[in-house]
Amino acid sequence: MELRHALSYASSKPLTLLILMRDDSRYREKVYKLVRRIPAGRVMTYGQIAELLGEGYTARTIGYVMHNSSNDTPWHRVINAQGACSTVGLVLPHDKQQRMLEAEGVQFNERGRCKLETYVWIPNAGRKSRTERMGKHTLFKKR
């Protein structure tokens, strides 16, 4: 069974999923590579990363991968879809992630949420696509 099919199957079975992810460093490295590109003062959501990486990735698996990231990966720049930090149950101060983001200029409201429309980072958003650079018309537009 190919890894991507195994990951899709295992997404509803957390223990099986963790075993598969632990054994595939390529799976984890794709996540880390993208997260390392997030600039200071910007964030991405677990679901956003999963969508960009494609089949076999879910918001939950991104969370598992980030939980085991190394010090050179800015794990604190990955937040939930509500614009809040998700560090409940981790062995660190409950507000560490938020404090790290605030030190980079991300502002949170009294409910501990940031405005995603202000701080979310979209890879290659300012870049023109190959089609746009070549001057050809397309039906698909970037927002």
Question: Would you kindly provide a written description of the structure presented here, covering whatever features stand out?
Answer:
With 143 residues, this protein is mainly alpha-helical. The protein is built from 8 helices and 2 strands. Strands 1-2 form a two-stranded parallel sheet. It starts with a helix and ends in a 9-residue tail after the last helix.
Quick structural overview:
This protein has helices spanning about 5-10, 15-25, 25-35, 45-55, 60-65, 95-105, 115-120, 130-135, and strands at about 45, 80.
Briefly note the structural class of the backbone. mainly alpha
Write down the secondary-structure element order.
Answer: HHHEHHEHHH
User: Assembly type of the shown chains?
Assistant: single chain
Q: How much helix is in the residues?
A: 40-55%
Give me the side-by-side strand order of the main sheet.
Answer: 1-2
Taking the sheet with the most strands, its summary is:
2 strands, parallel
Strand content: under 5%
Termini separation comes to: 37 Å
Low-confidence residue ranges: 137-143
Radius of gyration (CA) equals 17 Å
Average pLDDT level: 80
Shape: globular
Discrete helix count: 8
Would you report the number of β strands?
A: 2
